[in-house]
From TrEMBL, chain A:
<keyword id="KW-0653">Protein transport</keyword>
<keyword id="KW-0813">Transport</keyword>
<protein>
    <submittedName>
        <fullName>MTX3 protein</fullName>
    </submittedName>
</protein>
<dbReference type="InterPro" id="IPR050931">
    <property type="entry name" value="Mito_Protein_Transport_Metaxin"/>
</dbReference>
<dbReference type="Pfam" id="PF17171">
    <property type="entry name" value="GST_C_6"/>
</dbReference>
<keyword id="KW-0496">Mitochondrion</keyword>
<keyword id="KW-0472">Membrane</keyword>
<dbReference type="InterPro" id="IPR017410">
    <property type="entry name" value="Metaxin1/3"/>
</dbReference>
<dbReference type="GO" id="GO:0001401">
    <property type="term" value="C:SAM complex"/>
</dbReference>
TrEMBL record, chain B:
<keyword id="KW-1000">Mitochondrion outer membrane</keyword>
<feature type="domain" description="Metaxin glutathione S-transferase">
    <location>
        <begin position="148"/>
        <end position="210"/>
    </location>
</feature>
<comment type="function">
    <text>Involved in transport of proteins into the mitochondrion.</text>
</comment>
<dbReference type="GO" id="GO:0015031">
    <property type="term" value="P:protein transport"/>
</dbReference>
<comment type="similarity">
    <text>Belongs to the metaxin family.</text>
</comment>
<keyword id="KW-0472">Membrane</keyword>
<dbReference type="InterPro" id="IPR019564">
    <property type="entry name" value="Sam37/metaxin_N"/>
</dbReference>
<comment type="subunit">
    <text>Interacts with MTX1/metaxin-1. Associates with the mitochondrial contact site and cristae organizing system (MICOS) complex, composed of at least MICOS10/MIC10, CHCHD3/MIC19, CHCHD6/MIC25, APOOL/MIC27, IMMT/MIC60, APOO/MIC23/MIC26 and QIL1/MIC13. This complex was also known under the names MINOS or MitOS complex. The MICOS complex associates with mitochondrial outer membrane proteins SAMM50, MTX1 and MTX2 (together described as components of the mitochondrial outer membrane sorting assembly machinery (SAM) complex) and DNAJC11, mitochondrial inner membrane protein TMEM11 and with HSPA9.</text>
</comment>
<feature type="domain" description="Mitochondrial outer membrane transport complex Sam37/metaxin N-terminal">
    <location>
        <begin position="5"/>
        <end position="122"/>
    </location>
</feature>
Length: 312, 236
């Protein structure tokens, strides 16, 4: 019926098929509407320099933004919104706007700007997707773009410093999560019993916050206090992302293992460097013994905590 | 956008006087227009103003339940996201409009060369913002299509009711009125934007109704409406 369609997007981890909210939205929508997509995790492609993922390729047509991809799928008769009334369609647009304005800045901040999260999780993960030298350049570029976006849209006066902007965006995000929880209530999906575009978008934005293990997690903790949203994410993951014939789950597991290995290697390198520094300091006659013990403790602490963070 | 506030305050039955000043941006505590000056307090931007008014005991959305409040907030974001950004795009990123209308209007209170410098600066700022949110790559047709989609959604939500949440106006009604009225009455190079809105008869009827109910009584007070109407003839 339709030409074969291929979706290129960021890969997954921590039990998710993708870490990128927009890629996740498109994948979820495809599952909901039954569209046969082959999913291709990006590995070492120059296309990512433009930051255009996810990208759908069908015959000669190349489409890049989630809204346009969803439109294309609908035209190909893969429509998850078939049963919605016009008013519900309007509500969908409104809630998507709410997500983009209120939740997306905090999501970007948690992934790309919060220093501990960025250095220990996001950067190694994305850097491990590319060969040198892209691995050095690309994560930094994505982080700068995220910061730019947040400052330009949210950072006008009277919020002059980054900490004030951060406080504001997290407040907005928590309010948004509360509103979504109230809207979802006790129903299974946002519009009854079948999932629609809105469910795909909400899942795409919430799942990374819910599942990825970051050191700084106050947004995740807030989300965990809203049990209906957590149940919503878990439901979609079990129903639509584990039971596929293409064996998606083992592939997901493989990438998770590969990530684990790469992260372990990076951490080992770091701890080797720390040991070398330690040795140098021991040999140098100027430092008093007290400082050496503190350094040793610090080195020990740093070694153990990244290891414990790696356990899924 | 100032019209949203006027509409909101009229809906709360609070008397308001509008003053146009060239240095208004600097008087405002947040740098954004408009702002209200009440006694010895100055409050700017819709969110804080709504809260300020609520604290004084006037609120339009008290009768809504939690789900409706969530919907109202979502629709307000939609309007901000789509209509406001589209208006900014049209004013600052469409070259023809920029040259003929925006630059002269924005720079009019200042002498040359300040008027050119300030408007180029503002233009550069707006273009940067558009690039950050991904609108820089959009063509005029795509922007108009987005506006159409937004109006379609608003029209569907309004249906045949007098206001968005049935019988009583809320902040959402004020916001939508402000934007739509501005679009319908501001003269630009082409009428495409206002044509898009005119396609939805319930939206134009909505604007007319609010205008008649809340603004016509104040026409005699008209220094404000006259100042505004040099480029914006009232809806008839």
């Amino acid at each position: 019926m339709a030409a074969p369609m291929e979706l290129s997007c960021w890969g997954g981890g921590w039990g998710l098929p993708s870490l990128h909210p927009e890629s996740l939205t498109v994948m979820a929508y495809a599952r909901f509407s039954g569209a046969p997509l082959t999913v291709n995790s990006i590995n070492n492609s120059w296309r990512t320099l433009k930051g255009d993922l996810p990208v759908l390729v069908s015959e000669d047509i190349v489409i890049s933004q989630p809204a346009k991809i969803l439109n294309f799928l609908r035209k190909q008769k893969y429509n998850a919104d078939y049963d919605l009334s016009a008013k519900q369609g309007a509500d969908t647009l409104a809630y998507i706007a709410l997500l983009e304005e209120k939740l997306l800045p905090a999501l970007l901040h948690t992934f790309w700007i919060e220093a501990e999260n960025y250095c220990s999780v996001t950067k190694p993960w994305f850097a491990s997707r590319f060969a040198f030298p892209l691995s050095l350049y690309l994560p930094g570029k994505m982080s700068r773009e995220a910061l730019n976006r947040i400052l330009l849209t949210k950072g006008g006066p009277p919020l002059y410093s980054l900490t004030e902007v951060e406080a504001q965006i997290y407040r907005d995000a928590k309010e948004c999560l509360n509103l979504l929880s109230k809207r979802l209530g006790t129903s299974q999906f946002f519009f009854g019993d079948t999932p629609t575009t809105l469910d795909a978008f909400v899942f795409g934005f919430l799942a990374p916050i819910y599942k990825v293990c970051f050191p700084r997690v106050h947004l995740q903790e807030h989300l965990k206090q809203l049990p209906n949203l957590c149940r919503f994410c878990d439901d979609i993951l079990t129903r639509y992302f584990r039971l596929t014939v293409s064996g998606y789950s083992p592939a997901g597991q493989d990438t998770a293992d590969a990530n684990l290995q790469k992260l372990t290697q990076l951490v080992n390198k770091e701890s080797n460097l720390i040991e070398k520094m330690d040795d140098n300091l021991r040999k140098s006659p100027q430092h008093p013994p007290r400082k050496l013990t503190m350094l040793k403790l610090a080195a020990g602490g740093e070694e153990s905590s990244p290891m414990s963070r790696l356990s899924p | 956008a100032a019209l949203c506030f006027q509409a909101f305050l009229q809906m709360c039955n609070l008397p308001v006087r509008v003053i146009c000043r060239a240095n208004a941006e600097y008087m405002s505590p947040s740098g954004k227009l408009p702002f209200i000056h009440v006694g010895n307090q100055v409050v700017s931007e819709l969110g804080p103003i709504v809260q300020f008014v609520k604290a004084k005991g006037h609120s339009l959305s008290d009768g809504l339940d939690e789900v409706q409040k969530a919907e109202m907030k979502a629709y307000m974001e939609l309007v901000n996201n789509m209509l406001l950004t589209a208006e900014l795009y049209l004013q600052w990123c469409d070259d023809v409009t920029v040259e003929e209308i925006t630059h002269p209007r924005y720079g009019s209170p200042y002498p040359w060369p300040l008027n050119r410098i300030l408007s180029y600066q503002k233009q550069w700022e707006v273009r940067r913002k558009m690039k950050a949110i991904g609108w820089a790559g959009k063509t005029l047709e795509q922007v108009l299509e987005d506006v159409d989609q937004c109006c379609h959604a608003l029209s569907q939500r309004l249906g045949t009711q007098p206001y968005f949440f049935n019988k009583h106006p809320t902040e959402l009604d004020a916001l939508v009125f402000g934007h739509l009225f501005t679009i319908l009455t501001t003269q630009l190079i082409t009428d495409e934007l206002s044509e898009k809105v005119k396609n939805y008869s319930n939206l134009t009827a909505f604007c007319r109704r609010i205008e008649q109910q809340y603004f016509e009584g104040h026409e005699k007070d008209s220094s404000t409406i006259a100042a505004r109407s040099s480029k914006r003839p009232l809806l008839r």
